[in-house]
């Protein structure tokens, strides 16, 4: 079966984590014996580069779709790729499209993304199959669009256990790699400094936690990994809250370095407020390193987080509740923390890439039988 993989997100040397789940999907399909070709673009920062990139991308999608002889076109990110695919479908009605929707595809994060919604609905209606990352997101799609298209669940490429695995016994060596003081215990955050990611609520919650437990100010630190449109706001807020010594920031990292951070930290904090948090793969990556999570009670996170077993939940956008969660975690015994880490690891194994890849191939084999 010959598949054209379409996406406006794909990793590059400069941005190695950007759209890495699309690359993981490509690997999975190839491992399952499918012939995969790509029509993708990589991240650009300048507006003119983005404009030229999308123009070329759209033309490439239509050109390849018309002449490539593909059995299916598999698209990631319906919002930004719907236009050329709808044009292609009009010119070549026999084209069969499999649409993977996640994130802002269904729940726009900013007003400018609303303009894509009519085309998203049309693309989902004209797709042969829709793929969503979680049961939660499947419900959102059905509720919002009312489509009759079959929906299947596949968790965003899964977790690569060749990269994300427990390495707690080497924690001191890992700390030395990042010049971290082993005298402290560390919490962690990984995500963009951007709208809806909850980095601001995390800073406020962590500041409140330290105010209420001043004795821990010389025991714990918060590592925050990521960059984004709100970088300037992040650094300003960190200073205003008196957290310059207590919060350690790193910019975007390669996956191997992220795995080291997940192993260094005792607790991963996932403060998203996005209703469109379709799965939350970073939470599963942390769990794969035997690190439990403290996460917002929202979105696809609820598909895999069991309160009090592999993690804990707090009210989205509520710094006070987040601070209470941190305080409750500090009250746990070492054995309770260890059991939570083990349960987190067992959960992540259910999403391991090699274990789930057959689910994706089954979707395409099912499509092949309906020709």
TrEMBL record:
Cleavable signal peptide: none
Origin: domain of life: Bacteria
Domain Glycosyl transferase family: 172-340
CDD domains: GT4_PimA-like
InterPro entries named in the record: Glyco_trans_1, Glyco_trans_4-like_N, Glycosyltransferase_grp1
One GO MF term: glycosyltransferase activity
Residues annotated as domain Glycosyltransferase subfamily 4-like N-terminal: 44-157
Alphabetic keyword roster: Glycosyltransferase, Transferase
Assigned EC number: 2.4.-.-
Entries under Pfam families matching the protein: Glyco_transf_4, Glycos_transf_1
Family matches, as PANTHER family: SULFOQUINOVOSYL TRANSFERASE SQD2 (PTHR45947:SF3)
Protein name from the UniProt record: Glycosyltransferase family 4 protein
Organism: Planococcus chinensis
